[in-house]
Write a structure and sequence with these properties.
mainly alpha, 3 helices, 79% helix, 0% strand, 92 residues
Length: 92
């Protein structure tokens, strides 16, 4: 069952709860649920990154020689352009 603040307000309007008890109950529920683990965007990005690492490992196992060639082909450009910029502090 999902309990919302509107439900508590309706209970107050119906005379089932008084306003002070409804506020206390809502504060209790917020504190209780703050400790509960959640699945949010940060978790999604973490698992997506792990999936990318696994996929890269699979591709390396299948096409390792080709990937090594790509890295070795890109290395001179990185050494020429990227390394000096990195040493300067990424453009600072």
């Amino acid at each position: 069952m999902l309990l919302t603040r509107k439900d508590l307000e309706l209970a107050v309007d119906q005379g089932v709860l008084d306003a002070a008890r409804a506020e206390g109950l809502w504060a209790f529920l917020l504190r209780k649920n703050a400790q509960r683990p959640q699945f949010d965007l940060q978790h999604l990005l973490y698992y997506f990154g792990a999936l990318l690492v696994i996929a890269a490992g699979v591709q390396y196992r299948r096409h390792g020689e080709a990937l090594e060639r790509v890295v070795l082909a890109a290395l001179p450009g990185w050494l020429r352009d990227g390394l000096p910029q990195y040493r300067r502090g990424l453009g600072d």
